[in-house]
Amino acid sequence: MIDFRPFYRQIATTELSAWLETLPLQLKNWEKQTHGDYAKWAKVVDFLPHLNADRIDLKSAVKSESDFPLADGERQRVIYHLKQLMPWRKGPYHLHGIHIDCEWRSDFKWERVLPHLAPLQDRLILDVGCGSGYHMWRMVGEGAKIVVGIDPTELFLCQFEAVRKLLNNDQRAHLIPLGIEAMQPLGVFDTVFSMGVLYHRKSPLDHLTQLKNQLTKGGELVLETLVVDGDANTVLVPADRYAKMKNVYFIPSVAALINWLEKCGFNNVRCVDVAPTTLEEQRKTDWLENESLIDFLDPTDHSRTIEGYPAPKRAVILANK
Length: 321
Fold this sequence. Notes:
transferase activity, transferring alkyl or aryl (other than methyl) groups, tRNA U34 carboxymethyltransferase, Rossmann fold, SAM-dependent_MTases_sf, EC 2.5.1.-, 10 helices, alpha/beta, methyltransferase activity
């Protein structure tokens, strides 16, 4: 099973030390009710060999390399273990000559977001709904002091720990398997990311308030979410599913989203990017057994979802506490 004690020791002398009042007990309770496959996934991480990387690039990719490439047999063994952790949603990863070609080209999103951010050097960062942690490693590559990701999905935790193991066990990023609603309001993070989460929340204003409660005064929120065209009163509430997702509740216009953030007390709220999701950014690969974007769109009109709603478009909003 995943051992969180190194994280506890690391934060004990930092601004995050107050989290130790609640976190160990929460994770102890979490371990009692994990997904039935969690033990199997955690064993996959254990079975992965310790491979020393001579070079690690987290600035332009998530990549590890060694002076001596893996023998074909060992390479196939590592691929076999990593494929036990499918589906791989967010990536890509290039680890010891193995290309994990994930469903999402998350590097596309990162390249859209990064130019607009306050510098991440020496920052304490929270990534809410971090998935397998791809963007967390890119944050480390920008010089972050500590990056904490939270996501309750056990498979993502095991994918993250597998990648960490192939990055020389880098301890600058940590994934904690909790939702933000379980976090006490720490108020210490310099930057808080919430990317691809808001539309899954039944109460979006509560989510925005929870994000604000984790930020230090003056800290920056990076919010990326689905949006629709329209004015400040335009919000799409799908009747049943949106792009085959049943847990999509509110998709606002950019103007409505800015209004929500200001209502929650954020300032300096600005939209820095709007981009449609393309078939190059989200697609089927050998590391994904499931359907992908092409299956979620109207086959005769890719500007609509299969249910007839506007096709996915995403905005990046920045705001300060």
